[in-house]
Amino acid sequence: MLQAQRTLDFLDASYENGKNMLHYASEFSHDQMVPLILMTHSHFNRISLDESPEHPHEKTLKLLESKNRAGMNPLHIAAQYANDKVIEKILLMHEILSARNLNLNESHTQTKHLQRTLKYLEQPDPDGRAPLLVAASNPQHRKPMEILQQKHELICRKLYKDKNQVLEKIVSFFEMVDNTGENVLHKSVKSHRQDVICFILEKHEQLWSEFLKKDREDPDLWNKVQDFIGSATAFDEHTCLHIAALNIDLGYIEERAAIFKLLCTKIKREAVFDQVDLNYETVTDKLKFQEDMNPDNTEIVKSLIEIVAESKKKLSLNDAE
After folding, report:
1. 256 domain-assigned
2. In a domain? residue 312
3. 89 part of a folded domain
4. What is the CATH classification number for the domain harbouring 120?
């Protein structure tokens, strides 16, 4: 039993940065280590010298939910480093441990244990970012976001019987913002990954289509899409178009220009193009600034300014009709 306690002390130990073994396994994509650490921790908890009345699985869950000095738990860290396999293992183990923890104390817990995993998925870091927003902040590929969104949706559909309540919960999770007012679209537009942007826009349309029971050409649905694309950050009142325009000179210019064009095709409200930020600048103002500051990008930036002008003209004519 003394050896068991020593093993637990080793697994629970954290460094000066507050990271324990599980945090490091999440960071360095050691997906096979995650279940090994957790099952070992749970096993030795059952035979340790610790006489705490706390359930052994509860102690292991606390390890899985532990935060480093930056206030991030293992799921946040796995999302930050786009370690999709680790994310899958963490969520699977959290659900298993939550179920075992309750099943040994209570009956009829087929779904109750999911409430804790749902809370884990929605847990914000000190910057107000749930793991989904963390994944959007560093979108190396779309898989981490897909896993987190799908798991959240699956749990909500199991937990809640009322369909409207389910959809409201799922949509609000997808549209959540951090402490700066940025949502998943704001964060992912800062990258050059068009596949991630496409996933976000397609999923957002799909969720609202189901919620409103409207097809994708319905005006009510498009209003929700426009609200999402046109939402402004709290810090500098930037829309995703402002961000896309400002990031043109950050490398991968062709990819970033393609993202800007993609966003323009989704806008059905002229006012979105005319929104001003904290400096009272529209997206066209931002593009003109980029044109003046970066002569090498003049041709591409001019083409984007033309796209904005043409889009506004087309929308204006549609409104007139």
Report:
1. no
2. no
3. yes
4. 1.25.40.20
Residue 303: which of 281, 276, 279, 284 has the closest Cα?
Answer: 284
Cβ 139 vs Cβ 149: under 8 Å: no
Mean pLDDT by 10 residues, the chain (321 residues): 70 86 95 94 75 75 96 97 97 94 60 92 98 93 96 96 94 96 95 92 95 87 93 95 88 89 94 95 94 85 95 85 61
16: its two tokens: 């000066």
Retrieve residue 271's tokens.
Answer: 């006012």
Residue 124 and residue 131 in contact, taking contact as beta carbons nearer than 8 Å: no
Alpha carbon dihedral 81, 83, 84, 86, in 10-degree steps, equals -130
Task: Retrieve residue 240's tokens.
Answer: 């995703």
* Contacts of 178 by beta carbon, 8 Å cutoff, 6+ apart: 124, 127, 128, 129, 133
In a domain, 242, yes or no: no
The pLDDT of residue 140 is 87
Structural domain count of the chain: 1
- CA distances 32 to 15, 36, 269, Å, are 22, 7, 48
Q: Which domain holds residue 72?
A: 1-137
* Beta carbons of 131 and 148 less than 8 angstroms apart: yes
